[in-house]
Design goal:
- The protein is 40% helix and 18% strand.
- It is α+β, with helices and mostly antiparallel strands.
- It has a domain at 3-105 and 337-409.
- Strands 1, 2, 5, 6, 7, 8, 9, 10, 11 and 12 form a ten-stranded mixed sheet that branches.
- The longest helix has 25 residues, at 336-360.
- It is globular, with a radius of gyration of 24 Å.
- The protein starts with a helix and ends in a 31-residue tail after the last helix.
């Protein structure tokens, strides 16, 4: 039987479950303590569940999506610090409420910042490739969530489930989420993206889709740090004036800003200078705006070929929805604050898997996004399940074995001839169509 088959069978047959103490090697206790301090929470009474155990229960909700809170506590060996090891589900619910969402948020931010700082990612002309995009999640349908998040509406009122809108900043060669903002459905993606401006790292190129077209926002993104660039598809009705021709389909142009934008974005001038690059594909002409005005440092051929990498953030969202949530996009929590906590826990669990994948290919020639997330996440979860406190000294060996296993899941090379148009099949109706005579 192969190693992969052995690990797959372990998920159903393992009798020794992991302990919280073993998992702190993957999530540094220093990050947890700092997050608890910033959130202003602490364990007061000894008989209560330790906060680090509660944190792992929140992460476990995303790792074991279909498991009850009782089973999650059993899988992670979450227990009271006393002789009585039994934890009632109500105790975990109360502990989650005591923990709050701020501690989970600070833990996510601390882990993401450390992972980005200590690892070296594949770069494009010396710049880290990033992308920003939005996604929606449904919440449980109740009065509290409708008031907090809202839902789709029409002339007769609201319908569908309450929804929460999220916008993330992702590193594309690893799919590591660097920062995230989310709010009620009525808050637009551009407003959420504006909150991400302080999080943009230096020496980076961020790819946007056309929904983020705002000269004031793009200007603020470019001036957020040192050498922070952006790229976005050009709108057909964009007005500009050519200042300098860089090539047949390449030019430096100036664009006028509106007084509303200048009033909203501090430091925005009457005109901004951008690069307009055009190219043809399958008989159609496409144009992109960017802040990459130095054509010697960023050649035309490289500029027109890099934007396709923006699709990587869509693949990252698919990994979260299909693999982490098992295509069940309705979140489990019923109260608004617990919904926010669950989303932060989901992002934290996703990044933990991604960090393990980054470690696995650290000395390899492939990038982390060329590993199968569905297979890797399964075996990372198996690692959590099968590492016993009785063999804590073997944790580094077990982790090295996990790294070797993750390397087995390299995806085949991308096929450039594959096309996936955005279209859906018409849903068949059970009613016959009435035809006129």
């Amino acid at each position: 039987m192969s190693l992969v088959d052995n690990l797959d069978s372990t998920l159903n047959t393992a009798e020794e479950l992991t302990s919280i103490e073993d998992l702190t090697g993957l999530l540094d206790s220093g990050i947890l303590n700092q997050a608890f301090k910033e959130a202003g929470v602490a364990t007061i009474r000894k008989r209560r569940l330790p906060l680090d155990a509660v944190m792992w229960s929140v992460i476990g909700m995303s790792m074991f999506r279909h498991e009850s809170i009782w089973d999650i506590a059993s899988h992670l060996d979450i227990s009271l610090p006393s002789k009585n090891k039994l934890v009632a589900p109500s105790a975990l619910v109360q502990a989650r409420q005591r923990l709050g969402y701020e501690a989970v948020m600070h833990t996510f931010k601390g882990l993401a910042a450390r992972a980005f700082d200590k690892n070296t990612f594949e770069k494009w002309h010396g710049l880290n490739l990033l992308a920003v995009d939005g996604v929606m999640y449904r919440t449980q349908d109740n009065k509290q969530n409708r008031e907090a998040f809202g839902s789709e509406s029409h002339a007769k009122g609201e319908n569908s489930y309450p929804q929460i809108r999220m916008c993330c900043l992702m590193e594309l060669s690893s799919h590591l989420i660097l920062a995230s903002e989310f709010d009620a459905r009525k808050v637009g993606e551009l407003s959420l993206a504006q909150r991400l401006v302080p999080e943009v790292p230096d020496d980076s190129l961020t790819l946007f889709d056309r929904g983020y077209y705002s000269l004031g926002f793009l200007h603020s993104w470019q001036n957020a740090g040192k050498n922070t660039h952006w790229m976005i598809p050009a709108r057909k009705d964009s007005a500009y004036k050519v200042v300098k021709k860089l090539g047949k389909n390449d030019a430096i142009v100036t664009m006028n800003t509106t007084w509303q934008a200048r009033d909203k974005y501090e430091g925005l001038a009457d005109k901004i200078e951008v690069r307009l690059t055009s190219y043809q594909l399958d008989g159609k002409t496409y144009s992109i705006f960017s802040s990459l005005t130095d054509n010697m440092k960023y050649p035309y051929e490289s500029v027109i070929s890099v934007y396709v990498e923006r699709w990587e953030i869509e693949l990252g969202y698919r990994e979260i929805k299909q693999t982490m949530l098992h295509s069940s996009i309705t979140l489990r929590s019923k109260k608004p604050k617990m919904v926010i906590q669950e989303v932060w826990g989901l992002l934290l669990a996703y990044n933990l898997v991604r960090i393990a994948m980054i470690d696995a290919v650290k000395n390899e020639e492939i990038t982390p996004n060329r590993l199968s997330f569905s297979h890797c996440s399964r075996h990372v979860f198996i690692f959590f399940l099968t590492t016993s406190i009785r063999s804590a000294g073997k944790l580094p060996v077990r982790y090295n074995d996990l790294m070797e296993t993750l390397k087995l899941f390299a995806l085949p090379d991308k096929r450039t001839d594959r096309k996936f148009p955005r279209e859906v099949r018409k849903r068949p109706s059970k009613y016959s169509v009435k035809k006129r005579k």
